[in-house]
Amino acid sequence: MGRYEHLIELGKGLPALDEAYRTEGHRVRGCQSQVWLAAERTDRGTIHYQADSDALITKGLVALLLRVLDEQPPADVADASMEFLDRIGMKEHLSPTRKNGLDAMIKRMKAYAEAAR
């Protein structure tokens, strides 16, 4: 299975996003496609993220980020280097617009984490 096919499969596994989060306030700026991202601090002291996208590959990218960052302590998310994306060769296979979108999603997730510290 190629990278894009794997991303699409990851995206298909994302839980449905509550319609209450499909708002401009939850939309990630800097993404060519529509991406919505919501976060809340749990009673365990971690951050729970929910996300969705109208584009299959982008949905897979956000699903990949959730696999790594969801349910982690805010400090860990805020300080995460995300270098694993380079190690697995993900960024080198993305178009410039998808790279920008991925960076925007990471920036938004880290901003939520900073606010929850």
Order of H and E elements: HEEHHHH
Domain module tally: 1
The radius of gyration computed from the alpha-carbon positions, rounded to a whole number of angstroms, is: 13 Å
Helix content: 40-55%
Distance between the termini: 39 Å
If helices are DSSP runs of H or I spanning 4 or more residues, what is the number of helices?
A: 5
Give the overall pLDDT as a whole number: 94
How many DSSP E strands? Answer: 2
Largest sheet at a glance? 2 strands, antiparallel
Task: Give the overall form.
Answer: globular
Unreliable stretches covering 5 or more consecutive residues? none
Describe this structure in words.
With 117 residues, the chain is of the alpha+beta class. Helices cover 47% and strands 12% of the residues. It has helices at 3-12, 56-69, 74-79, 84-87, 96-116; strands spanning 35-41, 47-53. α1 (3-12) crosses α2 and α2 packs parallel to α5. The model has no long low-confidence stretch (mean pLDDT 94).
Question: What does the secondary structure layout of this molecule look like, with pairings?
Answer:
Blueprint: H1 3-12, E1 35-41, E2 47-53, H2 56-69, H3 74-79, H4 84-87, H5 96-116
Antiparallel strand pairs: 1-2
Helix pairs in contact: 1-2, 2-5
Quick overview:
This protein has 117 residues and is α+β, with helices and mostly antiparallel strands. It has helices at 3-12, 56-69, 74-79, 84-87, 96-116; strands at residues 35-41, 47-53.
